[in-house]
Write a structure and sequence with these properties.
The protein is 19% helix and 35% strand. The strands form two sheets. A ten-stranded mixed beta sheet has the order 4-3-2-1-5-6-7-14-9-12, with helices on both faces. Strands 11-10-13-8-15 form a five-stranded antiparallel beta sheet, with no helix packed on it. Helix 1 links the parallel strand 1 and strand 2 (27-31). The protein has helices at residues 16-20, 34-40, 57-66, 80-90, 105-113; strands at residues 4-8, 27-31, 47-50, 68-71, 95-100, 125-130, 133-139, 142-147, 153-157, 163-169, 175-180, 190-191, 197-202, 206-211, 220-222. The longest helix is centred in the middle third of the chain and has 11 residues, at 80-90.
């Protein structure tokens, strides 16, 4: 099993603190034009995935010489990011991290949302950095423990549909086996407690956890998911 796969997507340059926090041994996959941003940040992707309509000619030449290329038709039902995450899941990693950004809201929502696909349920840890902001995606039934800066903000959002059995402790406002409807504000802007240790549980559904942690490797543990 691979330990960690990083998928680089989006149209924005990668921020140095985020790149510096990535483990050197991680396998890097680039999504179309994300290859140019990965190379500019000093990363060396082993694979390029997509319809290749946004990668530069120089980036494509680099990939032809240095990486495997999975080229797809522009007439497809999945986004390039979804295709890359599906490929990453087939490698059975312990963790997948999506990094990227851009100013198109539809691209941002669907890129983050792609981590909620059922094919990723077996991956122990799913997280990402988008426009420099960190988030985790937790498939139910699952548990996640985060170590975050005390008094920092944390939000639980049901992006993919109804989430049931949602609990959180170690924050100013605890939740105990509640139901979160899609895209409601109940779980938004909670505050991390004084010891910085937060425990999250979801029984069913896909929960997205946004936090204001700085780009350093967080100390986290997760419970295996069926």
């Amino acid at each position: 099993m691979l330990e960690h796969i990083v998928v680089v997507s989006g149209s924005a340059p990668l921020e140095d603190p985020v790149v510096n926090a990535l483990p050197r041994e991680a396998t890097v996959l680039a999504v179309d034009g994300g290859l140019d941003h990965a190379l500019a940040a000093g990363l060396t992707p082993s694979r390029l995935i997509g319809d290749l309509d946004s990668v530069s000619s120089a980036g494509l030449a680099w990939a032809n010489a240095n990486a495997m290329i999975s080229r797809h038709s522009t007439d497809k039902d999945q986004t390039d990011t979804e295709l890359a995450l599906a490929l990453a899941a087939e490698m059975h990693p312990a963790r997948i991290t999506l990094i990227g950004g851009g100013n198109r809201l539809d691209h941002s929502i669907t890129a983050i949302g792609a981590l909620g696909h059922r094919s990723l349920m077996s991956v122990l840890r799913l997280d990402g950095w988008w426009n420099g902001k960190h988030f985790d995606v937790l498939h139910g039934p699952g548990e996640l423990k985060l170590v975050l800066p005390p008094a920092s903000l944390l939000s639980l959002v049901a992006l993919h549909g109804l989430c049931t059995g949602v609990s959180i402790s170690g924050t100013r406002w605890a939740l105990n086996s509640v139901e979160l409807a899609p895209l409601v504000g109940w779980g938004v802007s909670n505050e991390v407690g004084p010891d910085g240790v937060v425990s999250i549980h979801v029984s069913a559904g896909v929960l997205t956890i946004f936090n204001a942690s700085t780009p350093t490797p967080p100390s986290t543990t997760t419970a295996p998911q069926p």
